């Protein structure tokens, strides 16, 4: 009996999606079932044309219905239709569905429906995040996310990286910036059957016996795994209590992070990042239907597509040191051209590059992506490997036009004594539980290694020409704003 059940299950399949039906693999004349939401209704004398979309692609399937079948068929309603796939006699679609029968599964009052057909403001859609994906542009962005993510996974699988899952709860602040969310338990010890003394102990104790935080980066955990698996990566959520109200920051975002052993040169890390981003640009944004939707709904999208054609070509991306970048910024700041467009923050060696500096380097000076390497050690976290000059560290930021910083990475300090000295100088605990394990990695079979982190929403923003990363994720969270 069990064998028979397994055999019958192996032949099971889902009904085809509209994307599959519109592909060349489905023959004209076949009777099919289509599930979806009504996007538009156009009534004529004898028949009505309803465009159905199931979210599988940008295109909808035009369904031809008898006027007697229209009860409940309104914009936004969910329906199931049965009919024959035929060649379309109208313009704009190759196939259409001659409907035999229809079931309205979920009615939608057209007067009350918040997602009307006219253009809707960004802030309005943010306030209706639960329905935002019903709009063509938002749905296209989510499918673009899916496409880019699949392309990144394919790239790292091809290069024999192991995809790993790292903790969301952590006891350390990887970046050392203090922008963490602290996690507490919602359980109420006073409702428990414990004695008063036990309740007092429970109320004063941490759930994990020490403070816990939402992760700001998976890097330290990835380093631990890379010390055994050699090549590891993750694409997972990160959380930062970032109060910036810019178009580049979210409190919850996704980050691609990779670590691998045996690399000794920061240029190798840059090469990997460049290769994976170019691969994602080539294979993660090639759906013609999605491009048409974004071209219609996003200002500047077609121009962005043209600029990305040059970016993903064989020409290597520009590279310059932080010192060289500061020299170029200072030169511009002292020039006559800067009088019309001055920097708000004066560039100076030893200071952080501001967003305006990053965009000037990528948009004006280089006119494309640029890796800025070898920053002063005082500007970077403790784990980055010191260069021979002992003033700078072997690191990079990848700057791209319209975004600024897209990715950042470094060689990690694999030598025990320099790492411990650096941590001690910064007041970090080198003997306790918080970082003692990190030093253990240098005591037992340490190996040269490096890695990076890439902001996934920023990649989506760059590819799509969407100006704000809040539109590049399904349910955005930022300071003082968390719906759903």
Automatic annotation (TrEMBL):
Gene Ontology MF term list: asparagine-tRNA ligase activity; ATP binding; nucleic acid binding
Superkingdom per UniProt: Eukaryota
Keyword hit for Zinc: no
DNA-binding listed as a keyword: no
SUPFAM superfamilies: Class II aaRS and biotin synthetases, Nucleic acid-binding proteins
Keywords: Aminoacyl-tRNA synthetase, ATP-binding, Ligase, Nucleotide-binding, Protein biosynthesis
The protein's name: Asparagine--tRNA ligase, mitochondrial
Biological source species: Scleroderma citrinum Foug A
């Amino acid at each position: 009996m069990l064998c028979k059940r397994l055999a019958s299950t192996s032949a099971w399949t889902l009904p085809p999606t509209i994307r599959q039906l519109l592909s060349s693999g489905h023959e004209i004349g076949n009777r099919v079932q289509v599930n979806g939401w009504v996007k538009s209704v156009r009534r004529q004398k004898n028949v009505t044309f309803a465009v159905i979309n199931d979210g599988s692609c940008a295109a909808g399937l035009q369904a031809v219905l008898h006027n007697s079948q229209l009860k409940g068929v309104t914009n936004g309603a969910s329906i199931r239709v049965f009919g024959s796939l035929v060649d379309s006699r109208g313009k704009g679609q190759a196939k259409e569905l001659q409907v035999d029968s229809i079931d309205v599964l979920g009615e939608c009052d057209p007067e009350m429906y918040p997602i009307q057909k006219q253009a809707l403001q960004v802030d309005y859609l943010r306030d209706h995040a639960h329905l935002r994906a019903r709009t063509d542009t938002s749905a296209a962005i989510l499918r673009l996310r899916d496409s880019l993510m699949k392309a990144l996974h394919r790239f790292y699988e091809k290069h024999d990286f192991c995809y790993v899952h790292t903790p969301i709860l952590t006891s350390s602040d990887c970046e050392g910036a203090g922008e963490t969310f602290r996690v507490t338990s919602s359980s109420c010890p006073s409702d428990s059957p414990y004695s008063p003394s036990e309740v007092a102990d429970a109320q004063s104790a941490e759930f994990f016996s020490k403070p816990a935080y939402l992760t700001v980066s998976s890097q330290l955990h990835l380093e631990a795994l890379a010390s055994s698996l050699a090549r590891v990566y993750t694409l997972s959520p990160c959380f930062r209590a970032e109060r910036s109200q810019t178009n580049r920051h979210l409190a919850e975002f996704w980050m691609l992070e990779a670590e691998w052993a045996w690399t000794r040169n920061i240029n190798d890390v840059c090469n990997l990042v460049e290769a994976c981003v170019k691969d994602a640009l080539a294979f993660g944004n090639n759906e013609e239907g999605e491009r048409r939707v974004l071209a219609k709904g996003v200002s500047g999208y077609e121009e962005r597509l043209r600029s990305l054609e040059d970016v993903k070509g064989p020409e290597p991306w520009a590279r310059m040191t932080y010192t060289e970048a500061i020299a170029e910024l200072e030169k511009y700041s002292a020039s006559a051209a800067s009088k019309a467009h001055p920097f708000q923050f004066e560039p100076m060696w030893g200071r952080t590059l501001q967003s305006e500096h990053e965009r000037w380097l990528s948009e004006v000076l280089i006119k494309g992506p640029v890796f800025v390497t070898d920053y002063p050690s005082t500007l970077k976290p403790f784990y980055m490997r010191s260069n021979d000059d002992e003033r700078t560290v072997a690191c990079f930021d990848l700057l791209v036009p319209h975004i600024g910083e897209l990715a950042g990475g470094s060689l990690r300090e694999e030598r025990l004594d320099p790492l411990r000295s650096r941590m001690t100088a910064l007041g970090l605990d080198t003997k306790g539980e918080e970082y003692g394990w990190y030093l253990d990695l240098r005591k037992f079979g340490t190996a040269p290694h490096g890695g990076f982190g890439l902001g996934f929403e920023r990649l989506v923003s760059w590819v799509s020409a969407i100006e704000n990363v809040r539109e590049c994720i399904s349910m955005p969270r930022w300071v003082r704003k968390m719906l759903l």
